[in-house]
Write a structure and sequence with these properties.
Blueprint: E1 5-6, H1 9-29, E2 36-42, H2 46-61, E3 65-71, H3 77-89, E4 95-98, H4 108-114, H5 126-133, H6 144-157, E5 165-169, H7 176-185, E6 189-193, H8 200-204, E7 209-212, E8 230-233, E9 237-240, E10 249-252, H9 257-261, E11 266-267, H10 275-293
Parallel strand pairs: 1-11, 2-3, 2-4, 5-6, 5-7, 7-8, 8-11
Antiparallel strand pairs: 9-10
The structure holds NADPH dihydro-nicotinamide-adenine-dinucleotide phosphate.
NADPH dihydro-nicotinamide-adenine-dinucleotide phosphate binds at residues 145, 169-172, 174-176, 193-197, 213-216, 234-237, 274-275, 278.
Keywords: Amino-acid biosynthesis, Histidine biosynthesis, Hydrolase, Methionine biosynthesis, Multifunctional enzyme, NADP, One-carbon metabolism, Oxidoreductase, Purine biosynthesis, Ribonucleoprotein, Ribosomal protein
EC number: 1.5.1.5, 3.5.4.9
Domain Tetrahydrofolate dehydrogenase/cyclohydrolase catalytic: 7-122
Amino acid sequence: AKAAAIIDGKAVAADITARVAAGTAELVAAGALPPGLAVVLVGEDAASQVYVGAKGKKASELGFHSVQHTLPVDTSQADLLALVATLNRDPAIHGILVQLPLPAHIDTTAVIEAIEPAKDVDGFHPINVGRLAIGERDRALVSCTPAGCLVLIKRVLGDNLSGKDALVIGRSNIVGKPMAQLLLQESCTVTIAHSRSRDLPALAARADILVAAVGRPEMVRGDWIKPGAVVIDVGMNRIPAPERGAGKTRLVGDVAYAEAAAHASAITPVPGGVGPMTIAMLMANTLVAACRAAGRPAPT
Ligand code: NDP
């Protein structure tokens, strides 16, 4: 088989962010406010601090109004909800992102539901989830990781995915379910697999598009892949890498990359595939929210 094309998520993400920067300049030139993104972090989780820092930095680079609220780990739910309410009312803020996971004493669902849906740039609010489900994507904000996966799929297959068989492995609210909804919206025939699914290899054998969002290192094997399929690997798993020295680790996906690349027509690497797209789509969502707030057409 011909070697698969490597889908360069870093390059596509750079292209998306360049468009967002241009759209931002256009919006401001038209006299509207620049997109405003507020990122809220509760506590000092090291990984969350890195994510939040990267989001704020990217927002500033693109010409956004970017603010970060860092609250102590023992912040009460009432205080967090009060901050969300303030941001909901602030006309300079178009996107509100509360970094997850929240400390255990805070009800995550209550916080997500407190965010004004029009400012919910993570796309987690039930109103946005519902709008996607009823086919009103143009009025919704869609979860960033699956939205980024769809962009990558279209870069390979073009805009018309109608009739393709798609398999999504994983049914989380953040990745698997919205991914399946997006592909359904594109008129794919969608199968959603999860931990109770039987015979994943047989399901994969039919899939023209396979999205793995499981969190199990290299679970999807090369001989599962339909020849010529497009494989999108969302997984980010850190595994021991003794070959790099004692105590060293490396990042792998949910797909056994080298094996799968021998069967697929195109595949995302880990790292450098889906990962860079997530933050780019967050910026795109914030621009969309700002355009809608200004009554201007949102870029597609
Ligand atoms: P979750 O743990 O929330 O969901 C995992 C899903 O995989 C569940 O639906 C689960 O099924 C299913 N699953 C678990 N084991 C199996 C199995 N043996 N066979 C089939 N399905 C199985 O994870 P997320 O959706 O949040 O994330 C998935 C992966 O993507 C993780 O590696 C995460 O790190 C990565 N990720 C990467 C992002 C990026 O920017 N690149 C962003 C978000 C996530 P069930 O529902 O039955 O339990």
